[in-house]
Amino acid sequence: MGVFLVTTAAATVTVTAVALLVITGRPGSTSDPLGAAVAQVSMGKSGIELMATRQKVIREDAATAAFSITSAPKISHVPPSSVGSGVPAAPVGPVVTAGTAEAIAQSLMPSYGFSVSSQWGCLFDLWQAESGWDVTAENASGAYGIPQALPGSKMASAGPDWETNATTQIKWGLGYIQSTYGTPCGAWDHEEADGWY
Asked: Is the pLDDT of residue 90 over 50?
């Protein structure tokens, strides 16, 4: 047992000393100091272990370099109502922020005859209360999207991407408000009085 420990210690010291000499910059050293150290050590057990460690470091460096040049992962926005339903999901468009959805609504309001200056506050408050301007908002009753259409599939009349497209949902919602309440403020008045619109 004592001979084994002495041999192991001597091999470790030898490998470490050779590696240190190479790493500290001997004249004529290569750009791969670990490779040079491996070349100087006999291919005994220590040399084989050192070679395996070198190969592992090379693989890890390559993996790190490959990882650093890739982009951030893309997160899929699968509409909740299509998961596990057996029905193919509608085409998935970009899910937008609340601020973007609000800008889309403001740009579409005049085409429904609504004055942004007099009706925007009501529309903002209405859809903020209903969905927080979240394209994928869904409540327990099954109402869905920014305007909280019940059922959400009603919005398919405005486009096949109704589950994920803010513009499609907003067009449907503005049309619904126009035909049912006349204006966003009319819809907001109903919401405040009855808790729904």
From this structure: no
Count of residues in the chain = 197
Top-confidence residue, 21 or 60: 60
Domain map (residue ranges) of the chain: 2-68, 91-194
Q: Which residues pair with 32 in a beta bridge?
A: none
Give the per-residue pLDDT at 86. Answer: 44
**Residues 171 and 146 sit within 8 Å (Cβ to Cβ):** no
For 167, what's the count of Cα atoms within 13 Å in the CB-facing half-sphere?
Answer: 9
197 or 5, which is more confident: 197
Contact 152, 172 (CB under 8 A): no
What is the Cα–Cα distance from 136 to 94, expressed in whole angstroms? 11
Cα separation, 108 vs 171, whole angstroms: 7
Q: Angle 184-194/116-131 helices, nearest 10 degrees? A: 40
